[in-house]
Amino acid sequence: MKRKDILTPIGIFIGLTMVLFGIYTNGGIGGVSSFIQASSILVVLGGLIGAILINFSLKDLKLTFKVFKEAFRSDNYDLKGLIQLFVTLSEKARREGLLALENEVDEVEDPYIRKGVLLAIDGIEPEVINDIMNAEIVAMEERHQRGRAIFQKAGEYAPSWGMIGTLIGLVLMLNNLSNPETIGPSMAVALLTTFYGTLLANLVFTPLAGKLENKTDEEIFLKQIVIEGVIGVQSGQNPKILEEKLSAFLSNEQKNDLEEEEEKEQQFVGESVNGL
After folding, report:
1. Number of other CB atoms surrounding residue 209 within 10 Å
2. 120 near 276, Cβ under 8 Å?
3. pLDDT for the residue numbered 250
């Protein structure tokens, strides 16, 4: 289940706020206005867009907005619920056979889990199931890598175009050395393009690429748990052993929470039996 990730916009907002605060405290309103230069912005953004258009195909560029939105959304992974799902499937498979899982599959929303369980029901060998599902992970990783490559390249190109803008400003300044009073302001304007390029790279593009890479790692981690769960169900592992095996993917805190939940369930069952 996807939900809004407020950390991304908050991080960008805090970064911009601190930059503006640093400028304002040292130069007031006039200092802030001196950092706004249309020509410098156009050089950085124009050069950056041109380089991206050259580097990527139209197919890759169409993914940009879709991938960009993913950086502002997060997946609510319920690892404990996932483990419990495979424990339940394992119990039913051992009790009634793998074919009895067909009814359970219809209630599973995740297509990757559903595919794995269907492969297990079809009697596919564990090694083949592992190969098929890992191939899907590799394909997914490749798609995600192509999607975030635009932001990675933008993070590389932005400072370079900032430097190009600075060089343009320096050349124009050196051509007008007859008036020494203009050297300082001209140098400030020239340096603004480097400022814009560096700011975009380190506050927007590179962090977004890192965020997307972390999301891919989380999804791969989740899918690895699914593979272990499917193979465990298919091979008829004892549900308790399967639970212990899958619990290895949990953090110590998550393991403690899972143990507490199991203790509460056992206590509730015991109280219910005594009540009867």
Report:
1. 22
2. no
3. 78
